[in-house]
Structure formats: structure tokens, C-alpha cells
Fold each of these.
Amino acid sequence: MLATFYTCSYQTPIGYLNLAATDTHLVSCLFSDIAYPNSPEQPAVLQQTITQLNEYFAGTRRQFDIPMQPEGTDFQQKVWANLLSVPFGKTVSYMAVARAVSGEKAIRAVGAANGKNPICLIVPCHRVIGSDGSLTGYAGGLWRKEWLLKHEGILKPTQQLTLF
């Protein structure tokens, strides 16, 4: 039996987050400049996601607890699970994630998996930075990554980092 998917767009200060879910799990949360059409019905998981996103952007939520089911390879799933351990207000390097999931030689694969994260922000791929502290790679755009890190207090509002 095929799952039914529901979609909606959530307006953030930095563009839309287009959300997709089944009846029970969030499957996608991606930044875009264009809104998805909203499904006529919205399952509880989408309503819960919107509530938690409102809290995050208001500065009152630091961790999400939404049932998720991202689709990806076993390696991607390991990387995304590791990202869930990076707390609000902290960053981790691509090398540290590689060491944690597979070893240093997997650093490029970690970068690729990070870029394929279908549930950005909630699975905090924006908290992964270069070993030298640079902001490298973000599927939603490096300017969004910088904004999110400032929102979480990792960067000062006036601080500018080198973007690659």
C-alpha cells in the first residue's frame, strides 16, 4: 500500500520551508524561495512541526521532537543520526562527523550526505562547518546557514565569516 503524502509551506524569516509528511512522519523539510501548495488536509505531524518551527524561530525551542522518516542510504542515515546529537548553539566539523560514523576517509561522503539531508534545520546540518571554522556547503544557501548560526547564538549578529 502506498503512503499518502501531505505538503505545506512554512514562511520563515529566511524563505519558505517546504514540508512533506505521511500520516505519521515528517519526510521532508527543505528551504526554498517558492512555496509548495498546501494539502487540503494536514496530519497532526505537520501541525506539530509548524508549532515547533514557530517556537524555534521565536527563540523558545532548542530541540525538535518530531517523528521523522527521512529516506536515504544506510550511510546517510548514520550521518543524519549523528547530526541529531549536535546541540543547539554548538557546531561540529565535517571531520568530526566522519570520525564518528566511519573514519576520516569518509569526510567527502559525509559532506555529500549532509547536502542530501531531506529534513534540514530539524536534522541540524547547518551546524556542520569546516575544520578551520569556515562555513562550507549548505543546500539551503550559505547565507541561510549563517543566519541560522547567528539565530542560535553561535555567531554574533555582526560577525562575518568567510563563506566558501
Amino acid sequence: MNKLTLLTLLLCGVILSASAQKNLKYKAALQKIDSTGFYRIGLQPDLVAKAKPDLSDIRILDAKGNFVPYIQAGSLPQKSQKSFVVFPEIGNTPRTDTGTVFIIENKTGLVLDRLWIRLQNTAVKRKVNLLGSDDLNQWFAIQEDIPLQEAVQNSEGTYLQSLSFPASNYRYLKIQVNDKNKNPVKFLQAGIYTEYASTAQSYTPVAPLNIIRADSNKTTFIDIKLNDNYQLNKLHLNISAPRYYKRGVAIYQFVKNGKELLSEAELSSDKTPDLLIAAKTNHLLIEISNGDNQPLSIGEIKAWQSDEYLISYLEAKQSYRVLVGDSSAQAPEYDLKFFADSIGGNTPVIKHEAVIKNTNYAAAAKPAKKDYTALIWVAIVVSLGLLLFLTLKMTKEVKKKEGEM
């Protein structure tokens, strides 16, 4: 009986793995390694473009088609507890009927792509949205549907979780929890580690860009198109003139219903001409307000994605591949998240090869539309026959009445 149960579980695992492969549209082979251990897998822009915004549809498979556990690099805990800088909470934001809101202020002014939050121990499943603002009035989306981790067994009564998101420098950050009319989770504090904050954010270029510029009355419009829905976190404008300038900028992304404001920023001659954004799109619009000044002389424009990494335990000389491209996929739940503190800080980095179509992908077949042509012709013939019959009958009745007169 035990053997039968084990065989059934193994068979279910094989079926689920095969089913997952069929739902993922794209794949990329991983670089082979010479020694067994933990590795940091760099996700290139072409692969991230095919994935969901929160990367929850990414799967790593071995040569046998089995799932390989991983965690996102942002989930790694920091070793030093003395360097944690707490961001002050903005007031006591009341809980709404559908969710909990926690607002904090980034007084450091640093560009962040990670935030550590401390919660009261909880073992519930919730998802959070992260928003940013510079004035507490107008809020912009940074990352959506980030899963909250469950507390690891501990005696402290609290635990830390890292939220990873596209790099941004908003003064205020809002964490929204979708409680769905259930009891709320309890946030205690949020902040960053100074060692981490002092590390410069790294980026990978995204190309090619198709750029069209137009200068109208007091405004410069820069239209940027890409050949896929890339994750974009930084735009760099090579500005050569004038010597001194300070211009307001609005960045939009195009969505189905038109354009949507991503961020409002400033280009200034005393700062690096970089625009930090958080978008996953193939079409952007930059509007530069020139006032009564001459338009800026802008040369090359470059787009960048903040570096994204997965961490996984891989066997030497084995073949692995990364699969993405299932819009309905949910983030996997692996035990590895409970052992993140066992992963060393100097994890070697490996890359994946070119992204190609997954030959095992089985697109859902659209139901064939029923062909009513024959039925329509039958109806036409019947209608004509009935019309002919009624006409002949009516003609016969008319002649009969004329004969009687």
C-alpha cells in the first residue's frame, strides 16, 4: 500500500511538471557549472520581458523535467543587525474595509530597489502592492502582487521580509495589503541596511530603441518604442547643451486605454541626466517642459533594466533550463525560502543562453466555430417552398372565387 502511494505521488509529480512545461511559452538553457553549490542566476532583459511583472511564472527545470527550487536574490537576509535604518511611519493610517496600508518616509534620499519590513509573526497568505510618492497626494505604482512570506519558526514573535522592486527614489513608500475582508497583518517597522544602501545599483542595457523627437510650443516630446515588453528602470539622456538647465519632466507609458503617467521628475545640469522609472512596457513618452528656453540638445538615449537574480542550488555537470511565459502562473512555494540564511554572500553568478520558444508549449486550442451554412440553406429552401405553396394555394382560391361569380 505504501509503495502504491509513493508511486502515485511520483506519477502526480511527473504529470504536474509536464503540465507546467506545456503552459510556459519560452525557455533558455542555463550555463553549465563545474562544481555543485548555490549560484546566482542573472536574468537578462529578453527573458524578463517574456515573464510576468513580478517574475512569478519563472521555473527552473533539470534534465529530467523536475522543478528546481529557487529564491529571488532580494530574499536573502542581511547578517548585521546593527546597521538597520528604520524609516519613520507617516501617521497612523486607518485600515480600510479591504486592506491594510502602511506608509513610510525614505529620509535617506537613496535610490532603493529593496525594502525590509518587520511583521508580527503570521502564517497567512497575503499579497501587497508597493506605491511611491513625493507629496503624499499623487501615488505611482512600483510593484504589484508581491507575496508576503510566512513566518519561520522562531521565539522572537516577529520576522523580517525583504521586498524586491524596480529601483526608485520616491520620498514616501506605501505598502498596501489586500486583506479581502479578512483580519489584517501587523506591520511593525520598515527600513534598509546601510551596507546594502551604500552598494551602487547595477543595471543591464535594453536595446534597441526606436526614438522619435518632436519640439512644439514650449515642450519637447520624445517617443520611445521597443520590440518587446521590457522591464525599464532607468533612462539616460545624453544632454550636451545648454550649459545650465533645469526642466520638469513627465514620463508616460502607453496602455490599452491611452497613456498612463509613470513619474514626474527633473532634469538639471547639476545632476546626472538619469530618469528612474518602474515600467514593463514597449512604448514610452517623455515630455520635457522647456518654458521660454530653447529645447535641450539631446544625443543618445539609453534604457536600462535593474539587475534581477535568482538563487538556486545546482548540481555540477547537469543541464538546467529556465522557463517563462504563463500569465496565469502563481509564485512557487519552495522550502528553500526557510534556509535563505544558509546561503553565502559571495555566490557565483551564471547566465542563461538566448531565449527561444518552448517546443513543448501547447497553446490552448480555440473551440472551432460551428458552421451553420448548410442549416441556413435548408431554412432558405424550406422558406421558399412554403412561400411557393402559399402562393399557389392563394392563386387557386382566387380562381375558385372568380369561377363562382
Amino acid sequence: MLKGFQEFIMRGNVIDLAVAVVIGAAFTAVVNSLVNNVFNPLIGAIFKAESLDGALILSIPTMDGGVAEVKFGAFIGALLTFVIVAAVVYFVFVLPINTMKKHAEERLKRGAAPDVSEPEAETELVLLSQIRDLLVEQRIGGDGVSANESGGGRHQQS
């Protein structure tokens, strides 16, 4: 049981995922700081509030005489954080990787054009057919009859 767990942990994709989670958490802290310390004060100044958390609050009276607060500013702040994270992930990770994949595919297409000087790549079927023909020739005893001349490569055993 422990060996299976060790194999699971030592897989490359599990380690990559762990690294991604740690970097993602650190990156989220940076983005939250950017939103809370730069964007919130700027937007809060527009709405005359300390930050977005204190802006655009709608107070709704409750049945027991209290007040419920709907904090649209806090939601806008969270939405802004999401948009920033998504933009950074796209422009820093997704776009460069897609560009590299596109260039690699183009290089493969250019390099995939068959060279006239090189023989065609032999497929497994071609190789197996050649082996069969050689075995048939050996079985016939080299009497000059090739596998193709002996009925399509099939030879009856006596």
C-alpha cells in the first residue's frame, strides 16, 4: 500500500501539480495585494470610500429590524482580482505556450515533406511482408521461385 502511494507521489504530473498550486498561491497573494493596495484605493476614490469593500453597499432592512448589507464593491473587487489573474495567466503562460506549439507544428510540417533522396519509411506491414517473403524463399529452397510468383506469397506446407 505504501509502495503504491510512493509511486503516485513520485509521478511527474503530481509533482508538477504541487508546484503549480504553490506558485498559484504565491501569485494570488501578489494579485490580491495589487487589487487591495492599488486598484481598490483608486476605484474607492471614485466612489468616495476607503476601498471597494466599503463602496457600493446597499442596506436592506430585515424582518427582525436589523440591516443586511449587500456589498457590491467587494464583489467588484473580487471580479477585478479574477480578471487580473486570468489576464496574467493568459499572457504569461497560455499565449507563449500556444505560440511555441504553433511554431513547432509549422517546423514539423516544413520538415515533414518527403525528401526524394531518402527511401520511404517502412511500415510494420511492409517489414512483416518482407520477412514472410524471405521465409517462403527459404522454405522453397531457393529454387528460383519467389514468394510473389508462388501465388501471392502463400505457400502450402506439405
